[in-house]
Amino acid sequence: MNLIWLFGAELKRGWILQRRYVVETIALMIGLTLVFCGLLVSTQNLVGPDVQLGDRLDALVVSYVLWSLSLFIMGNIAGELQQEAQTGTLEQLFLSPIRAAQLLIIRALANLAPQLVINLAILILIMAITGNWLSFSLFALPPLITVLLSAYGLSLVLGSLALLFKKVQQVLAVFQFLLFFMLMAPMETWTGPSYLLGWLLPITPSAGLLRNVISYGAPLDWILVLLALLNSALYLGLGLLLFHWAERKAKKYGGLGGY
Amino acid sequence: MILESHKLKKSYRDKGRLISAVHDVSLRIAAGEVAAFLGPNGAGKTTTIKIIAGLLRPDEGWVRICDRNPHKNQSALKLLGAVLEGNRNLYWRLTPAENLEYFGVLRGLSPRIVQQRSHVLLERFNLAHKAQTIVGALSRGMQQKVAIMVALIHQPRLLLLDEPTLGLDVEATEEVKQLVREIASQGCAILLTTHQLAIAEELADRIAIINQGKVIMEQATHDLIRQFSGSAYQIELEVSLDPARRLKLENLGTDIETETKLRVSNLAALYQVLALLKPLPVLRIQKEEANLTDIFLKLVREQ
Ligand SMILES: Nc1ncnc2c1ncn2[C@@H]1O[C@H](COP(=O)(O)OP(=O)(O)OP(=O)(O)O)[C@@H](O)[C@H]1O
Ligand SMILES: [Mg+2]
Fold this sequence. Notes:
By secondary structure, chain A is mostly helical. Chain A has one domain. Chain A has helices spanning 2-19, 22-47, 55-87, 89-94, 100-130, 141-165, 169-184, 192-198, 204-214, 222-253. The two termini of chain A are 36 Å apart. In chain A, 40% of the residues are buried. Chain B is α/β, with parallel strands linked by helices. Chain B is elongated. The longest helix of chain B is centred in the middle third of the chain and has 16 residues, at 170-185. In chain B, the strands form 3 sheets. Chain B has a 6-stranded mixed β-sheet with strand order 5-6-7-3-8-9, with helices on both faces. In chain B, strands 11-12-10-13 form a 4-stranded antiparallel β-sheet. Chain B has a 3-stranded antiparallel β-sheet with strand order 2-1-4. The A-B interface holds A 1-2, 5-6, 8-9, 12-13, 16-17, 20, 87-89, 91-99, 103, 248, 251-254, 256-258 and B 12-13, 47, 50, 53-57, 74-75, 77-78, 80-82, 84, 86, 88-94, 98, 101-103, 105-108, 110-111, 150. The complex binds adenosine-5'-triphosphate and magnesium ion. The site of adenosine-5'-triphosphate has 12 residues of chain B, from strand 1, strand 2 and helix 1. Residues 45-46, 85, 162 of chain B line the site of magnesium ion (MG).
């Protein structure tokens, strides 16, 4: 019961705080769309004007929007943690009888709806600009869920770093590129050992599955979905473990307060 | 006992060096009691408060809040409210009402109960008219009152206040003092730190002085004052002393501080002096009382 109330309180808090950033959010949406257009133009220049991107374009769109969604999620969890450590509210959060990791997850879920809306808007913008409309099916849902789980796992990893080192801005910047690579990596076209290794990368297998379903219209292989679920559960577990560890460290070294 | 802390020890590692911040700090506070925790900058007050609040793990020693250890049993945190150092215990972009609602639910209350209690608290703290103004736009005094309200929303048994009157003007300070008295009178145990010794003297039932991580004195406030007060009396006259009386008084061993002020070292001497002064008009006779500032400085410098 309590967790449901807390979810409600988080929804409300998120809404009140986000409402004040409407302009920033819209600017960010337009910026992300423009970056995609730039990316597209340079890709087309690379391969030459005569080559039709076709399904490849679909795949690019899917990966890009996943990247943007993951950025929102990570920036939200890690960025907010860092900000709250600096302003001092973090200690008040740790004074509650609810475990910090649990609170973070509830926060993440409460923030998910607006993040999905924003990224759906980006997707529609991109599709409108490129005139390339993707077809969605319900089969996109399972891989989307595993993508989200992986993103939460990685956010918790970043959140742990935020607890320990306070300044994650730089790390976040580097991480964006890593994430870009992991989401773009066309694992579905790999073969042999690299394909097997691909299954160990965070988020990559789930993104590959999603691309397969949406861009190439391939049927969903439930064995692969299960593997992707395992992969994302692994990274979520890793994130949780790391976060508990970081929390213990912070309580040992006095790192919860903003210095 | 609401709060018991036993031989808390904490060292920080700073650039490879080990700094002992708190050493063997034991405190006990009963329900309805206000304890003031005094000490110079860097003495270890905030460190102790954070250990008690479960935010910092002690190297040694333990804390019990109503017999529960906040470091092992997270439910102990329900018994505790804290306003930590500085002015950032709240979401500045939310209003007092929204802060109360959020933190109330976070502390495990249902939204309905939070609603009722915030209503009562806002009235009692005289902030109902500011309930819908964002915290960032309130004065420092109001922010501090909101922070105390938020710390009280789940009706804790122990309230920790780290420098609650820092940066407040005279009126806001008085208000916070009054609130602390009220909260204690309802049975809450309060531990507060302050550098304003007059406030500690007025508010606290018990005083603990900490220096360089060690508690150097812990006593009931009036015992402490009495212990340091000695037995001297001060007499103030409405008129100046004449030379003849002055000479006799000096022979009795009286300190003549000014033309109209005398200091007598004990009660027996007091009546002899009064006999001599008769029939001069007396303005005041008062027993000399030590004040906390003198005691504090004496104890801290002795170390
Ligand atoms: N996170 C930390 N890392 C390293 N050293 C710390 C940390 N927090 C406190 N210290 C050191 O521990 C000692 C005790 O600090 P503390 O903040 O408890 O003092 P205080 O009594 O609250 O002082 P003040 O009156 O200035 O608030 C100081 O020497 C301080 O520099
Ligand atoms: Mg302090």
